[in-house]
Specification:
Blueprint (H helix, E strand, L loop, with lengths): L3 E5 L13 E6 H5 L3 H8 L5 H10 L6 E6 L3 E6 L12 H11 L5 E9 L3 H10 L8 H5 L4 E11 L6 E4 L22 E4 L3 E4 L25 E2 L7 E2 L22 H5 L15 H4 L3 H23 L7 H15 L4 E4 H6 L3 H7 L7 E7 L7 E12 L19 H15 L5 E11 L11 E3 L5 E3 L7 H14 L5 E6 L4 H5 L5 E5 L2 H14 L3 E3 L4 H4 L10 E2 L9 H11 L8 E6 L5 E2 L2 E2 L4 H7 L7 H6 L4 H9 L11
Parallel strand pairs: 1-6, 2-4, 2-5, 5-6, 14-15, 14-18, 17-21, 18-22, 19-20
Antiparallel strand pairs: 3-4, 6-7, 8-9, 10-11, 12-13, 13-15, 16-17, 19-22, 23-24
Helix pairs in contact: 4-5, 5-9, 9-13, 10-13, 12-14, 13-19, 14-18, 16-19
């Protein structure tokens, strides 16, 4: 799987399944709505229409089912049609399993996913988890041939009438269709391009605009004479709109927003009526959606690769190189504090945990500060590249797998890369707390007392409770030095999380009931499921009472909600009365499935903060509703805290 490349295309094209194996996947009611004319070219001459219909009639998902259509070259598989309220309606977890078990082998393969547009993001991220990048199998190094999996989404919708079906339509280079005249007037108003930002209608393209040979990079084909609109299909620069054209009261239906046209002095073509049904709009976002899916799935696979890589390769030095590589890709230089400088500047938590390791600990920050930002968001990730437990050492059965203790930092790296590429509109800082909890002569001992960046002292009673120490330094840095309004820390923090919320749901602890609900809602929409922990510092924080320091680092009673207590330790360093939003995500269990990393957290962060992005697909899966968004725009975003629910 390591040499597999994913391609998201509007149309995968036709091919004999014997030369290009095929997996068709979706909920059974959705599969029944796929017309034979759409799948015929992908199945013939091996599969007839009668065989296709017979296969659909035999499927009986409980919760899933599959049926081979032609040997092992073509298979149709079904997702659960109904799920419980604590699962994702997309049934994303089943996608990963079905792809791994049902996708036929081959060098070039195709997956056709049938779903509603609201499930596209979750299913794409789940699909990415089925194709991990890391491997050190000797046979893999000898195989030089690159394998590709082409992914096509076939969308169904059911708004305003009978269910209809639509496919994503992505602009492709080639001959442009002719435009019919309309009553639209030429204008010098501005048109928003998601890639080059602005194009002046009817006059000239900005010098930074991509050349015409990059049509799939954005919603339009950049040409001296014509421009492709992902909503109305074609518009000639400064001259005419095709008829019919959507009315001005549907600006949010287009990823580029039609609103600037009407404000720019253009008139709507005569006789244009409202669109009927959501299906036509589904294909409208395709070019923008495609880039979102590419960046999101690359982020998921990046995070999973880092977590899968063992510490003899993924040490703190290597992790910093990964951060620098992402920074270079985005045009951002990371700020890095390392080794003795951590001690000098007061980062006693990070330094104390990592000082015994061969590769020194570090605090690294990637900062995205766009013009016009109205608030500052910080993502803080636990990056323990290996956790022996320190002198409170783990046993021989619990230590294997501790390469995954950097899952939080890996998640924010993958999410930060995707969020910035998708046009994040607010200040965003990714804070990486990197260390190896090693054993050595200089290792922290139980009974040692460390002074953390908050100015508070911590008595160490368990060196295996190290994640909260590095995160405490990280969140205080985000608060004091970065001026964050919203701080979210994400970590593989406690083994007890898997007992509290299970293997599939991350645990969320936050000082805001609204953000707690938003995290749960975002998890259901993106497939990275979340469930709340008890937030009650007045009852639980006494577990950390110390006779000689401000607090201990581990609880007195391990039966008293230890996952909640671990999160409260982090919050105590910025203060329980801090007026901003603090969110803690414990992803210890869902960071892996079996012996493979899942890239958990990337999709969740992108969805949770989707409304801070310019991307329409992220807006769709964001827990921030359109009503709240409209109110925020009317108030010109004068509120520092983003309302998500």
């Amino acid at each position: 799987m390591a040499n597999v490349g994913l391609q998201f295309l509007a149309s995968a094209g036709d091919a004999d399944p014997q030369s290009r194996p095929l997996l068709l996947l979706g909920q059974l009611p959705h599969l029944h709505r796929v017309p034979w004319s759409h799948v015929r070219g992908k199945l013939q001459p091996r599969v007839t229409e009668e065989l296709w219909q017979a296969a659909l009639s035999t499927l009986n998902p409980n919760p899933t089912d599959s049926c081979p259509l032609y040997l092992n070259c073509a298979t149709v598989a079904t997702l659960p049609s109904r799920v419980s309220r604590h699962n994702s309606p997309s049934a994303a977890h089943f996608v990963t399993r079905l792809v791994r078990t049902c996708l036929p082998p081959g060098t070039h393969r195709c997956i056709l996913l049938v779903c509603e547009r609201s499930d596209v993001f979750a299913l794409a991220c789940a699909l990415a988890r089925a194709f991990p990048l890391f491997t050190r199998r000797s046979g893999a190094t000898r195989r030089t041939e690159k394998k590709t999996v082409t992914v096509e989404f076939f969308l169904v919708g059911q708004d305003n009438g009978p269910v209809e079906v639509s496919t994503l339509q992505v602009g492709v280079p080639g001959a442009l269709p002719s435009l019919s005249p309309s009553t639209a007037r030429p204008s010098s108003g501005l048109w928003r391009c998601p890639l080059c930002k602005w194009v002046s209608l009817g006059h000239s393209l900005p010098s930074s605009c991509p050349s015409p040979d990059l049509p799939q990079a954005c919603g339009g084909v950049h040409s001296a004479s014509q421009w492709r609109c992902p909503l109305c299909k074609w518009v000639s620069l400064g001259y005419s709109f095709p008829s019919p054209h959507p009315p001005p009261d549907l600006p949010q239906a287009c990823g580029l927003s039609c609103l600037p046209w009407w404000r720019g002095g253009m008139s709507c073509p005569a006789g244009v009526g409202r669109w009927h049904g959501a299906e036509r709009a589904l294909g409208a976002h395709a070019a923008v959606d495609r880039m979102c899916l590419v960046n999101a799935t690359e982020g998921v696979r990046l995070a999973a690769r880092i977590v899968d890589t063992p510490c003899n390769e993924m040490n703190t030095d290597t992790f910093l190189e990964e951060i620098k590589k992402v920074g270079k890709d985005l045009g951002i230089t990371p700020a890095i504090i390392r080794d003795e400088e951590l001690k000098t500047r007061g980062f006693g938590g990070i330094y104390g945990v990592g000082k015994a390791a061969l590769h020194p600990p570090a605090l690294a920050v990637l900062s995205h500060t766009p013009e016009g930002a109205t608030q500052t968001i910080a993502w803080v990730g636990k990056g323990i590249v290996y956790d022996t437990g320190g002198l409170s050492i783990k046993g021989k059965t619990t230590m294997p797998g501790m390469k995954r203790d950097c899952g939080g930092a890996a998640a924010i790296l993958g999410a930060f890369r995707a969020a910035v590429k998708q046009g994040f509109k607010d200040n965003l800082h990714a804070v990486f707390c990197l260390a190896e909890n090693a054993v050595g002569p200089s290792a922290t001992r139980p009974d040692d007392i460390h002074l953390l960046y908050s100015g508070k002292t911590v008595e160490i009673n368990n060196t295996d409770a190290e994640g909260r120490l590095v995160l405490a330094d990280g969140v205080v840095y985000a608060c004091k030095d970065l001026g964050a309004d919203i701080i979210l820390d994400i970590a593989t923090l406690t083994g007890a999380q898997g007992i509290a919320t299970g293997k599939y749901h991350a645990a969320v602890l936050t000082n805001s009931a609204e953000w707690e609900a938003a995290c749960v809602k975002a998890g259901r929409k993106c497939g990275d499921l979340v469930h709340p922990l008890v937030y009650c510092p007045e009852l639980h924080f006494s577990e950390f009472t110390s006779a000689v320091a401000d607090m201990k680092n581990s609880v007195a009673d391990r039966d008293n909600s230890p996952s909640s207590c671990a999160g409260l330790f982090i919050a105590s360093h910025i203060g329980f009365d801090w007026p901003g939003v603090w969110v803690h995500l414990d992803i210890a269990a869902p960071v892996h499935a079996g012996e493979r990393a899942t890239g958990f957290g990337v999709a969740l962060l992108l969805a949770l903060f989707g409304r801070a992005s310019e991307d329409p697909l992220l807006n769709l899966v964001s827990p921030l509703g359109c009503e709240a968004d409209t109110q925020a725009e009317d108030m010109e975003r004068d509120s520092k805290r983003r309302r998500l629910v």
